[in-house]
């Protein structure tokens, strides 16, 4: 253990974070940096969803006050409130970096989302995004359905979405798309297939983000343990193995997006209506490092958490950061995940609460 | 609605009930009759498990006091505490009707169970049971495992068990076996295959019980709703359809066993360690009737809840009942499932709490 050489991860990025608003925002926003992450790509699924420049600018300012060293990249929520004009304007003001698409009803605060069986209403939006080089972030699940001829459930919801992803890519070959928090071997195979033959990072148009928790969880982990219930649900052991292989592969179209999604503990400890989401922000890099070490692939960790995503999003320069004075160093340090963070009514249980972790992140002055 | 003719179901039987002990036993035991059931086949997974004649006799007496009109059929818990001599003795004293086999660790109070990869230690027990015409009740799941070459999880745990069922039947062709609470198309297909060609009910050696809740639930029903979490877990829509088809088919090797499994509400509303089980006892026949009506098969309901199981267990005479003065009549009567039963610390949420049901059971003097 004593022989472990700390690893300079530079300025890691988490390309899928939920920071909420109100007291929950106050609680979790500082944990981005504490968890070893410099750049947070912020989801827009507040209530109501973020669909205006004013709100996204105000939200970013609020976040920045809470975490002065963290670079926040902002998004709009894809809905009928958006127009191509608004997309152009928001891009030119650098108010947003992308647009998040939620199929209606599949996860927390997604009721204003779209019908993934027919994206055509949004093609003018996608065209504007393609022109502005904005990213399209897809929650890639079809809503559950038990109609004859179409049997969609939480287990095949992602795989059933993949044809829609391929069609979008075919219709907008220059639109940069991320399949968010992918959870299945089928998704990994599709992303690899789309990128086969690509040797230059600039040519990647369709990437996938992978969370920390999906590298550890399977269906058995959330059966009877709502704290591990999230959407998309963690799937079979064979899927988890495919995700781990993809994450540690060093392939630049797979990068980190935690989908850290805090809920008050009382919203997880329910007999019905459990909120979907796993909170990993406060120890994000530590969770991921543990998986990479188990695969003997710590040398690929920096690619996954820092380089590949930042290349894809074109935020790979120090100039893209609000603060580049410190670097995140991975160090070997055993610690116990706290049972909860927060206090009073606002208590959140982190992923793997009570377990021991082997790694920690130290921020050190950049060379 | 007014044209519905009440149906005389005779004296229905539930061939898989959990009545617990202590205050929970006091609360749920009377609900067997209230739910429209005359005969309850009682599971032995108390703490510690029931493995002696003294305890099974005492337990039955306690239950009988709580529900004088209910006929209780008792079971032993398969474990190394049992001997062939004990099996012979218990059978000859009519203390038990069968023996329940739990694979270790798969569900509530199963830690004393057996290794389903190797039943051979119990072959002397099975031989004694075969000689005494006792029933072997199998919880048919392999324990989850993520070892290389064997990937068992809650979704394929039952299907993975089926070869062990077939081997047991081959090794003990005259032992009567029930695959309890089956949940998959694979299990239904296997039971049909084993019984293919059988035309006399007396020739059935391997049957399957089907619960009320598995006729309604799928994986989506318990994802985020621990009240619907049970073992085996409810599976895919295609599995549910196979269960419904089997239940309403009129095939005598499929019969009712509710696996009604009460837990205090606080044991279901947890963020980790949710207890597995759905409580259906208090409205057992009403839940099932609703499914049969939706399939236009109410004429097969009596076979499923009364005749087939009682034929298999050879308790098809009035003389087998402690009370045969009343019959259960299915009537059309809309009612709302209560949010909970019980009071204080001992509160149980019934299946479909708050929903409307279309049918009720009335006990009427037998003709």
TrEMBL record, chains A, B:
Keywords: Hydrolase, Metal-binding, Pyrimidine biosynthesis, Zinc. It comes from the Eukaryota. Pathway: Pyrimidine metabolism; UMP biosynthesis via de novo pathway; (S)-dihydroorotate from bicarbonate: step 3/3. Gene3D superfamilies: Metal-dependent hydrolases (3.20.20.140). Its cofactor is Zn(2+). One of its GO terms (molecular function) is dihydroorotase activity. GO terms for cellular component: cytoplasm. One of its GO terms (biological process) is pyrimidine nucleotide biosynthetic process. Coiled coil: none annotated. Its EC number is 3.5.2.3. Belongs to the metallo-dependent hydrolases superfamily. DHOase family. Class II DHOase subfamily. This is dihydroorotase.
